[in-house]
Structures are given as structure tokens and as C-alpha cells.
Amino acid sequence: MKLMQKKTFDELFDGVIKHEGYYANVTGDRGGETYMGVARNLHPNWDGWEYIDAYKETYGKIKRNFKIDIPELNQLVKDFYKHTFYDHYQIGSIKNGSLQEIIFDWCVNSGHWGSRGVQRTLNQFFNAELKMDGIIGKQTLKIINGCNPRELFEAIKAARIRYYYTIAKKGQNYRFLKGWLRRIGSINYRN
After folding, report:
1. Is residue 14 included in any domain, yes or no?
2. Are 105 and 149 in the same domain?
3. Can you tell me the mean pLDDT for 185-189?
4. DSSP class of residue 23?
5. Closest by Cα among 103, 132, 139, 76 to 7
6. Which pLDDT band holds residue 27 (cuts at 50, 70, 90)?
7. CA distance 26 to 24
8. Whole-angstrom Cα distance, residue 159 to residue 142?
């Protein structure tokens, strides 16, 4: 069985960030004000908010999906994704690029619920007995890297679709379902 070459953080970041957009403050989004996927309500101490607040003070209200073209802000976003998702969930230790992509994207989109979803999938369909703690550690990595990558990829993709339909029933999340399904539909297994 041929394994797809691992992806670099930069490749994974570029794939994820295209779904995140730029500035948003959408009613019903529990993250509240968001810039390139970094939600103020979830990450209020992120250094990038200083740049965004200064921009608003200088220029006024920011239009939806407006890109603030400040190199330091762009680097803060990239550093945030590297630390908060890539490093935290040990994406670099996953041996298959397609699995790296779908797991990284789920963790970005759903945080620990994404990593727990991966563990749930491994328990339900791959006879694992993992504690569903949301920590992608040695045990979870061993099982991820020991599975048939295509089968695990397809199982995770199906689990994500079920997850999105489930959370779409809560509050105003139904407003985001179409985008979530488009997002997961754009991620495909590659040999």
C-alpha cells in the first residue's frame, strides 16, 4: 500500500485558510468577531486583535471578508494555526498527507471536538479503545498510522458530515451547514 507523502505545515495551512475567509462578525456565530478563522470569543488574548482594533479605530467598521494587509498580522495568524492546531494536535506525526489534511482541517474547524471525532471514529470502526479526551497523543497516532489510510480517511469524512448535521440542529448553526458541507466536500483522498 502506497502512502501519500506527508504535507508540510505551509501546505496544510494554505488548504485550510481558503475556507476561513478574512474579517467576519456574523450574527449567530458563537465565535463572534473573527479574522481568518481566529474567533475573538474563543481566543480573546490573541495578539492579532491589537492590529484589528487599531485598524477599526483608524478606518472605522470593517467590511465582511475584508483582508487587512499587514504582514505582521498575517504572520500572527500563521503562528496561531501552527501552535494551536498543527503542533497541539501533532499533525506532523501523522504519516499520510490526506489524513493530515482531513484531521488538521477538522481540528481547525471544531477544535477538540474534531480530535474527539477522530478518536470516536477509530473506536467505532477500527476496533480502537481510545479514551475520547481530544488529545492526539502516542496511542491515537499509533492507531491512525496503523490503519489503511483511505479507509480511515473515508470514515473520518463520513463522521464529519454526520457531526455537521448534528450541530446544525443547535441554535443558529443551521446557517453554516451549507458552508461546512462545501468545506468537507472539497477535501479528497489523494494517493
Report:
1. no
2. yes
3. 96
4. E
5. 103
6. confident
7. 6
8. 20
74, burial (CB in 10 Å: exposed 0-12, middle 13-18, buried 19+): middle
- For residue 94, give the amino acid letter: I
CA 156 from centre of chain: 13
Query: Looking at the structure, do residues 187 and 103 belong to the same domain, yes or no?
Result: yes
Q: Give residue-wise pLDDT tens across range 37-58.
A: 999 999 999 999 999 999 999 9
Q: What is the DSSP string of 99-157?
A: HHHHHHHHHHHHTHHHHHHHHHHHHHHS------SS---HHHHHHHHHS-HHHHHHHHH
Of 28, 48, 25, the closest CA to residue 167 belongs to: 28
Domain that holds residue 71: 20-87
Q: How many CB atoms lie within 10 A of CB 16?
A: 22
**62 lies in some domain:** yes
Residue type, 55: Y
Using an 8 Å Cβ cutoff, are 98 and 190 in contact?
A: yes
Q: How many domains does the chain have?
A: 2
Phi, psi of 93, deg, nearest 5:
-90, 0
Are 99 and 56 members of one domain?
no
| Same domain as 151, residue 73 | no
